[in-house]
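Lab meeting, action items carried over

1. Structure of the two-component assembly. Owner: GW. Status: complete.
Input record:
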Amino acid sequence: MDPLEAIKATFFQECDELLADLESGLLELEGGGGDIETVNAVFRAVHSVKGGAGAFGLEPLVRFAHVFETTLDDMRSGKLATEPAAVKVMLRAADILADHVSAARGQGVVDEAGSLRLVAELKALCGGGAAAPGAADDDDVVMVDSEVEDDGFGDFDFTPVLVEIEAPAATTPTWRIGFKPSRAMYAKANETALLLRELDRIGVCQVTLNADGLPDFDALDPEESYFAWDIEVETDQGEAAIREVFEFVEDDCEISVTGGVADAPVEAPAPSIDLELTTAPPPEAEPEAVDGDVMALLERAKAAAAELQPAPSASAAPRAAAAPAPAAGLHPADSADAKAAAGTTIRVDLERVDRLIDLVGELVINQAMLTQRVGESGLARSSTVSVGLEDLEHLTREIQDSVMAIRAQPVKSVFQRMPRLVREVAAMTEKQVRLTTEGENTEVDKTVIERLSDPLIHMIRNAIDHGLEKPHVRLAAGKPAEGVVKLCALHRSGRIVIEVSDDGAGINRERVKQIALDKGLIAPDATLTDEETDNLIFLPGFSTAATVSDISGRGVGMDVVRRQVQALGGRISITSNPGKGSTFSLSLPLTLAVLDGMVVGVSGHTLVTPLTAIIETLQPKANDVRLLGPNGAVLAVRDAYVPLVDVGAVLGYNKGPTDWTTGVVLLVESEVGGRAALLVDAIQGQRQVVIKSLEANYQRVEGIAAATILGDGRVALILDVDALIDVRRKDARRSATPPAARLPLAS
Amino acid sequence: MSNVTSLEKAGLQKVGRRRELISFRIGPQEFCVDIMSVREIRGWTAATPLPQSPDYVRGVINLRGAVLPIIDLAARLELGDTDATARSVIIVTHIGPRLVGLLVDAVSDILTITEDQVQPTPDIACDTVREFVKGLLAVEGRMISWVALERVLPELEAEAA
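Predicted assembly:
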């Protein structure tokens, strides 16, 4: 690749990350959380995009980013309040910015009109002012952000780009202030940040945080005050002015004010961080010595951040003391999240990881083959070969787990794409929607992540379009006009569960039933439980939208979502509470590469059944099985009749009926068809198998999910339990329905 | 194949494109495929049958970790099922993006031909021949049919959704 192209590719990768940061920052602000540091982070993101774009001469992107940045700068300097209306505009601006980035990358086009409209809106936010570039073009401003403003050293991962130290002007007297607030000061709802900001108004400040008093995490009292600050302020307003700042807290803190000498050389300059608080003018008298210390300072900051890493919530503690506001409870989690995302990372080409995974997969197969061969050769279990082999097995398993962990990624990357979708769909449907997310750091295999996005988009669209009511309907029902869609991810028994819930009207069961009847999806006399009725919406050919809307009715319904999810080895279900809302719940395997399976024998063939589908196994007695109709049979399981599926017959391995008394039954649960009993000949054991696609070299086979390679080197097929039950059901329906009324079958 | 044009330009070719073909036997008849589409040739191993597949699909085997479908070429060409023995051969070929094994009786030769040696398939009434044979070759008195590889896989099901 052309080196410039390579750099450009890196730039775009970074853009993706920056845009994600931008959006999450804005969302934090929108939610009422966030502080000046969040605004700074948002500003930096846009600024970095602009800077990079400038280097590559991406004019339209630069122009838009510039306007955006200018507005953000106003917000940063406090001229523009972080009120919801302004943030909403900025969120839309972030969307347009993302479009510009895509366009610059050669993907998609920018809605020029929309872009211009937003430029106008942004400029209007700036107070209609002609974009004053001066403030925004801060390439020449010292920007090493300090956290003194905030609570903490929690976010030491700042990325200062340019550090410029001005020559000392040496005219203003410098005052040195030692400030150590006590517990009582915070208890009276005073805040250091405000004091420092006040101080900054009277002169140029250099603030150094002294966190030496911070005890170990376990000794930390969340309400105690541990921090002290050393402040150097250049001002000619005299000591009185400084004292005045601290007037209200002087009884609750230790404070010392010394100096006042002009041109005071700073002896042994403490590593200090220039603080850009509000509209700080460029520092006038920066001690020269600091220049050389900046690197050392950065090192120290890094070291500090590293030191603090093990106890991320420590940063929360002083804040809890400093600001016992309602937001305080929220913030620690956020900063802990941010911390989890940080850390040392490398970028690796996905292909290399995939190659590694493939190799490890083969290693597992080979190791299993070797074990089997050694077993066959009749060596004693205590022989050194067997013992060595056992070690190898452990090692292999560990390598496999570690490699899988490389691919594991937080679902955040998918969740982050959703707020924009929600905004767009909400605008289209004229509904007010707030999206809340939970468990963004839940990890799952990359392949799952990639394929998660489509079903999620569908589910969210569906939740907004069909689930939530229009504002006036909501108000009439005594609910707030703004609907809430909640997206939540969690690990549950070796699977990842993702829930999309809304607080809308819930499923209109009568209507669903009627539609299913009209479309011939259910028999007129069918009696369905509420749950079964809810799940009718997953049937192919079902769409409740009376008119095909632009959002949900695009020819794809929930059946497509279900297919996508099933293709991933997942399940989807819906629970609904009339008037209160519905919850889609999506359960997926953590990885698509390995599967815990039950190895069974069917008519001389070896098959693997996913363990997750199996509820129990049992040996049927002759009188447990009842014939039903010409060729159906059910199995009595504790007074319930479960349809019996003869696997050998469905897969065409054997022609005649199987003698069920000699076989074993796997009681399975499918997401769609409820329970079923799969009749097999024998169970051979339980094993973790590496999933191999059949589609790669062949094509989909109905009733078969994938293939795997067993210890003897032969290929075994993995059953697709849901499809197996479905096949049987379709066969039954086919023979039961007259041809004219037959459904167009999906495959 | 891709460098054939440059060969032509270099004047190495005067009469048509040069092709290398692998010929193999199914019963008494001889067939061939382009050598560039052949990845390897291996002995027969028992395949795992696939349910609900056409009868010329013998199943799948493990090719060093990949799942390889095996097509019984004799059955595909409607010449009767191959009675696979230890002497049968699987020709592993690229068909589009897929890797597919062809079960044949034996591999016989590597032929170097020019394209003008390929005769069009005679217009006889047999659909199978028209479908699977894209030309005939006369080599040392033997008639060899050139198999149209892209046809041997079952028609891909139109994946709904």
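2. GW to write a short summary for the group page. Key points so far: Chain A has a mean pLDDT of 73. The longest helix of chain A spans residues 3-30.
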